[in-house]
Amino acid sequence: MDFNVSDEILGTFAPILVYWVYSGIYIPLGRFENYRLHSRKDEDEKNLVSKQTVVKGVLLQQMVQAVVAIILFTDFMVFNILGTSDKIQGHIVILVDDSRARILGQAKGHSTKHLAKGLTHFSVEEVTGNDSDASVVQQPPLVLFRQFVVAMLVLDTWQYFMHRYMHHNKFLYRHIHSQHHRLVVPYSFGALYNHPVEGLLLDTIGGALSFLLSGMSPRMSIFFFSFATIKTVDDHCGLWLPGNLFHFFFRNNSAYHDIHHQLYGTKYNYSQPFFVMWDRMLGTYMPYSLEKRAGGGLEAKPTKDCKD
Fold first, then answer.
1. What's the rounded Cα separation, in Å, for the pair 28 and 96?
2. Cα–Cα distance, 94 to 266 (Å, whole number)
3. For residue 144, what pLDDT is reported?
4. Roughly what angle, to the nearest 10 degrees, separates helices 100-107 and 112-128?
5. Average pLDDT in the 106-130 region?
6. Residue 92: phi, psi to the nearest 5?
7. Per the confidence metrics, is the pTM higher than 0.90?
8. For labelling, which of 87, 212, 252, 300 has a CA lying 20 to 30 Å from the CA of 271?
9. How confident is the model at residue 8 (pLDDT cuts 50, 70, 90)?
10. Would the pLDDT of 110 be above 80?
11. C-alpha–C-alpha distance, residues 171 and 21, integer Å
12. Predicted pLDDT of residue 123
């Protein structure tokens, strides 16, 4: 029995599955006190929301994201089928230039109505992928890399300015963004614990813009959004594990974001989830140093010149 799952379905639900699997990996790792940025006691006492409430909040946000993703991918498919994209125009050119003789030859002795029907069937077959050989348009690796980087930059830009605005607007912070900061000591599966409005504005709309402006396909979005999900979970894991590749490639990491969750760092380190360029350019960058914490573990401490 054939169980084919469309790229659109995978692009919608794969990041959700990745979120819970990857954050679940960090739960047993949190027992290693030497790698924690806060003690387990602080996690239990300083956080202002229960883990049960956090799980419910994350599931609500993921439900909203799934609905928006389905709508977005549906519109994307309709857009392609209507022939308004370059991909469809390319199929039409191929159809007219390369297959004219074959189609017209088949149409001899048939009415115009039958010819139009055959032409329509041929076009849809090329576009919708009824022919498995013609359905997948392979993009060059350089194009895929460019789309991935553009999506990262779009998401970072959107989230930086929306995130910063939610801190500076007292109403938005008090009624919306403060919900996320109930986690003074972040942990992995609390990464997407936000007010539903914040989840819609920052994550859902930001993700939609990344998808649309980068020009990536639904298949490419599976990898991008899964990667972005892993990165977001890692930034909130509250651990500094040796050999973590994210710490090697990204300045924006679990220690960097932990600074933002502390009272002295709420006006700094807004950037998420990839780069720190906007913080550096706009004066909201707070450097830190990792120091051994009394009782075991590590602590991300801001440098003195940035400490308010």
1. 60
2. 56
3. 96
4. 140
5. 42
6. -65, -40
7. no
8. 212
9. confident
10. no
11. 35
12. 39
Structure tokens belonging to residue 57:
């909040």
d(CA 235, CA 286): 16
Q: What Å distances lie between residue 183 and 91, 96, 227, 276, CA to CA?
A: 51, 60, 23, 22
Per-residue pLDDT of 284-302, as tens digits, reads: 999 999 999 988 899 999 9
Residue type, 203: D
Q: What is the pLDDT of residues 189-233, one digit of tens each?
A: 999 999 999 999 999 999 999 999 999 999 999 999 999 999 999
Stronger pLDDT, 276 or 134, i.e. the higher one: 276
Here the tokens at position 281 are: 């350019």
Contact 106, 118 (CB under 8 A): yes
252 within 8 A of 268, measured Cβ to Cβ = no
At 296 the pLDDT is 87
The β-bridge partners of 259 are none
CA neighbor of 128 nearest in space, from 76, 70, 72, 93: 76
Distance CA 80, CA 60 (A): 31
186 Rama class: left (phi>0) / alpha (psi -120 to 50) / beta = beta
Query: Nearest 5°: CA angle at 32, between 26 and 34?
Result: 125
CA–chain centroid gap for 214, Å, is 13
